[in-house]
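Exercise: predict the fold of this chain.
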Amino acid sequence: IIVTALPIASNNNAKTLAAWTLKIIAGLRQHNICVVSYACDSTEVEHAVQRMLVSEAECVIFYEIASPAPGLSTIKIDIPVLYGQAIVNIQDPKHGLKTFCNNIFSGARLLTLGNYTAQYSRIRAMAFEDGTPLYHRDVEKLDRQDDNAAARLFSSATLKFLIDHHPDDVGEIVFLFVHGEIVDAYQNRAIPHRERIKMVLRARYFYDGWCTYLERVGYKETQYFMSRESTDITARLIDGLVGLIVVYRDHIPGDHPLLPWLHTSEPCEHCFADLRKIVKDFTML
């Protein structure tokens, strides 16, 4: 449901967008509409808006999950309260999936996982084999904004093909499994929330272990680890899902089902796509 639309210009900054967002949330709360999440894509401006919402909060709920092993950091989740309602800042999972795909495909960094690496060249070679679930266009002349291409890369079919035909490609297998599970924790409609939490926490501890390994062997994260933007997106996806479960459990009156696959920016994108069929340069927020 489109609640409101405002014309936007290229010079609208995060401060302006945050003010509009707060005004919309305030109006919804005045009509007793429970707003529990604010989803964004992966742009720096949108992330800045989320940070401003936290700074404008009446109070912030702090939730911690202790590390299961020494050397791993405690997970700290901040949930801002705006107009009497806890609201979780989350990242759109499908945009996260495309960012993960771009990281392994870019070639700018050698993603080093212990004694193994995750490389584009091996993914490309697999796309040209018989029986592969990937298409040629998924690896050559790829549309970086293609949701379906990213979904195929991180699908269970691709993971199974790699395990069955290339069991020695451990770096690619681990990379696809860990990052695919992060998004599957949001998109899967047939698993309990307890399992979703396990999936994202597994990814969080994997990232902590990866960083610890690189530090101890003296490898620079700027050369052998995920990009800063991708790491930030991963943290938002993990913290966002745990935050949603906490809010639905503790900070919403009554019993309401949590459907995490609906907490995305995807409906907005579909609206934009349809509206641009009518008005080619449609630019409203």
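Check your answer against the key: The two ends are 13 Å apart (CA to CA).
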